[in-house]
Amino acid sequence: THYEATVACRQLGHVTYTWGLPFEIKESSSSAADKSLFETITCTSSEKSLSDCNIQEGDCMKYCSTIMGLKCFVPEDCTEGSVQLVDGIEQGGRVEVCVNGVWGSVCGEGWDKTDAYVVCKQMGFPDLEPIAYSGDEFGVAT
Fold first, then answer.
1. Alpha-carbon distance 79 to 18, whole Å?
2. Which of 72, 89, 78 lies closest to 18, judged by CA?
3. Residue 26 burial (C-beta neighbours within 10 Å; 0-12, 13-18, 19+)
4. Greater confidence, 39 or 52?
5. Cα–Cα distance, 129 to 113 (Å, whole number)
6. Is pLDDT at 79 greater than 60 in this prediction?
7. What pLDDT is attached to residue 46?
8. pLDDT tens digits along 93-124
9. What is the chain's mean pLDDT, rounded?
10. So what's the pLDDT on residue 99?
11. Are residues 2 and 84 in contact, defined by beta-carbon separation less than 8 angstroms?
12. DSSP 8-state symbol, 130
């Protein structure tokens, strides 16, 4: 979860981050992908290192189909709840929201014209007729 990722970021020396995000690296060709050192690691996000978390050790030779990656997010100068449009044109682009000091893309699942209208209104374009795009029309999500 993001709790374990946050602790891992802290342990790696990223002390000005706001949070961490784990992600799976599917079917790696690395020899590390077929060995699992830990069955589970459970943190609350207050720990200083992963060794302070609840660790359930696994069999070192147990097959692991995926290995985990980590992204440590560093806070930026953004206001909580602010929205911006990126990788597009002046009044169009990929929607990003500031959460915990980090800009992140909005998931397109369930995104519709009503959501687009709210963003347009928040950005000062209340009279524009919005068009809701989904997918990677304006670049890859952050």
1. 14
2. 72
3. exposed
4. 52
5. 9
6. yes
7. 87
8. 889 998 878 888 888 788 888 988 999 899 88
9. 77
10. 84
11. no
12. -
Task: With a cut of 60, say whether residue 11 has pLDDT above it.
Answer: yes
Q: Which residue has the tokens 């302070």?
A: 52
**Residue 125 in tokens:** 């374009």
Question: 134: closest CA among 118, 124, 115, 122?
Answer: 115
For residues 50 and 41, the answer to whether their CB atoms sit within 8 Å is yes
SS3 content of the chain, % helix, strand, coil (to 5): 20, 30, 50
Tokens of 47: 């720990």
One-letter amino acid at 34 equals D
**Backbone dihedral angles phi then psi of residue 31, each to the nearest 5 degrees:** -70, -15
DSSP assignment string, 55-107: EEE--TT---SEEEEEEEEPP-S--TT-EEEEEEETTEEEEEEEETTEEEEPP
